[in-house]
Structures are given as C-alpha cells and as structure tokens.
Amino acid sequence: MTETVIKKSIYQREEPEGFLETLGVRYYRFLAKKAGTSELHNVSIDDLQPDATLQALSTNITAFAAVIAFAIGALTTFVTIWIEWTFQASMTTAAYYLLYGSVLIVMLTVEMTVLFWLGLKIVYSLACLTGHNQATKDFCLPGDDAVPNILARAALEVPDPIIRYLGIDPLKHLSKSKLFLVTLLYKAKVILSSLGVKFLLVRFFGKGDIRLTFSWVAIPITGLWDAFTLYKVAREARLRLFGNKLAEHIAMNVITDDVIAQLSLKAREGSVRAVAVMMVLAQHYHPNMLVLLHRLCSTFEIDETKEYDNWEDFLALLDEVAEHERYFLLDLLCVSAAFDGHLSRLERYHLPEAFKELTEEYMQRAEKLKNMLLNGQLHAAKDLCELDFNAG
C-alpha cells in the first residue's frame, strides 16, 4: 500500500485583497507616480538621514496629521450638534430625526473619508523618509504582498490577511472563541468608533437644555479621538517602514553567504524555526517577520513536511547545535521578537526557556530594539541586529 503525500504550497493567502486595501494601494501608487518615484529602487540604511533627522521629521509629520485629524473630527461633530441645537425644538419629531440622521451620516462619511486620505498621505510621507516611496514589487516580501499593501493596511486600519507560510499558524494557541471576540471587537472599533463617540456624547449627557449644553463636550473629545487614531496609524506605519528596512538589511547584508557557510544543516533549520516560533508566540504574521522568513526559506533547503513552528522542537534543536550556532540562533530569536514592536505575554513567558542564563541580556536587547524601531532610531537599531555567533 502506497501513501500519497500532498505537498503544501509555501505561501497561501486565504482571502483576496479587500476593497479598502485595493483602494489604498492604488492611491499610494498614484502618489508615487505623481512624485516621480514609482520606479526608484530601495536605498540602504547607511544612505538614509541620521536618526535625529528621521525622528524629527517623522514626529513633525505625525503631529501635523494629528492636528488636521483633530480639526476634522471637531468640525464634523460641531455641525451635528449645531443641527440639534438649532432645529430640535422648532421641527416635528419625524422631520427633525430625518434631518439629524441625514446630516450625521454625511458628516461621518466626510470624517472617515478625510481620515483615510490623511492616513494614506502620512504613510507615503513617512515612506519617503525611509526610501520606500517606490511602487515596485518588493522582492523581500513573499507572494503578492508589497510595501504599498502593508502601508495601505496600516493607513486604513485594515487587518493583515490570514496567510499560511510554510504551514506556520500564528493563531495556533489562540482559541476560536477568543479569535472571534478579537475580530468582532476590531470590526466594531473600525465601524462604530467615531459614530459611537458622537452618539453617546450627544444623546446621553443629561436631559433637555442641560443635555444640549453638555453635548458640546463631544467636539473636543471626538477631535482628540481622531487625532489619537491618526497617531496610531503613523506609529504602525513607522514600525512597518523602519522594521521592513531593518529586516531587508539583515536579509541582504547580515545573513550573507559567508555567514550561511558557517551554519550546519541543523542550524539552518533552526534559523527558520527561530522566526517561525516567534510568529506563533507573537500570534501575528507581521510583515517585518515575513521578510526574514522569506529570505531564510529562499536561501535554505526547506522540508515542507516539518512543523517549523513547534516551540518544543526549537528548544530541543538549540541543545543539538554547536555553541556558536546556538548564539546565532538566539540572536535571531531576539531580533525577531522585537520586529512587531510588541513583546506579548507568550513571548515574555517562553523566551527565557531559550535564553536560559542569558535571559536578562537578551530581553533587554529585545526591549531596546523594539523601542528604537518605534522611535525611528534606525541606524542605532541596525547596530543591535548583528548576528555574530557571540553570546548576547
């Protein structure tokens, strides 16, 4: 009796590009074409401006966008409150609610449209700082993904797609009920956040004239909410841009042919496992991690029948490789942990099992690298990403 083994595809995207992502990518490419940068190639980290300049410019771009977001949130809320203040007492109930509902929908549409447009302008401006302003396909990303896609998702707060890369399942330790709740809360945040803030503040502050008086409080609160939303968009865009640039540097300039030649077959397998298990512990297929994983998979011979995202198998492998190879794998594990800008509860719990006596040193390095990525200290972060076969 013969057994048929079905070979899995290394990269599988379970859902097609959505409408908002498609729209965002098209606008991003339009901006790149308009600026004449659509055919430019990436530049290296060493060719970028100093960290102080990158930080200052990215902070100014974010602050300017937050001010505009505050203004649009406050203005659209002012219009709805003015309608209520002016017409509620003089119109019939049916006519008033028809007018109020229509104005509320129009203002919400205007608000969301401007915020989406502003988000895309932010990420493109930040991309220009890091040399990502071209619109060509990024060879470091797998499948049909590209820098315009990952930035469009950040700008429009669209979740990253569920994909299968080498059979790795980042959600394997997340229960279906919790996953459903997370998805539900995310969609509720995106769809109902601005509308909910307006509705709750406008409708439930007191009664009668007191309620009308207190409803004006919704203006600055909605403005602050929109400003905070744009701040988060800029923060995630910075993380993806700086992290992508750093991952690209590691993939092309750190994991060189000379470094690869020093790795045994077991250590090469461990390199893939180091990034794969971090995806599981982070419970996210962050694009920055995919760059590293794609580079490793395209360089090493991959056995697609193996379960690369098993934490226990990775720990066992660390005891099987030579000491210098173990330090290389721990360096790679540490760097991968910082690449999504967050150290999850699972990461903080399990990483000491791999770092052992070097736990404090590696955890401090991961925290420092994470903060540098979030703050735009790209040149300083590059120095923390050496994979030099030495401890720590």
Which features does this protein show?
two-stranded antiparallel ribbon, disordered N terminus, 2 domains, elongated, 392 residues, mainly alpha, single chain
Strand-helix topology:
Layout lengths: L10 E3 L5 H17 L15 H37 L5 H37 L17 H9 L7 E3 L10 H28 L4 H7 L3 H37 L2 H5 L3 H18 L4 H13 L11 H8 L4 H16 L6 H11 L3 H17 L2 H6 L9
Antiparallel strand pairs: 1-2
Helix pairs in contact: 1-4, 2-3, 2-7, 3-4, 3-7, 4-7, 5-7, 7-10, 9-10, 9-11, 9-12, 12-14, 13-14
Verbal overview:
The protein has helices at residues 19-35, 51-87, 93-129, 147-155, 176-203, 208-214, 218-254, 257-261, 265-282, 287-299, 311-318, 323-338, 345-355, 359-375, 378-383; strands at residues 11-13, 163-165. The chain has 392 residues and is mainly alpha-helical. It has two domains: 18-165 and 176-238, no CATH class; 255-383, no CATH class. The chain has a two-stranded antiparallel sheet. α7 (218-254) runs parallel beside α10. The longest helix has 37 residues, at 51-87. The radius of gyration is 24 Å and the shape is elongated.
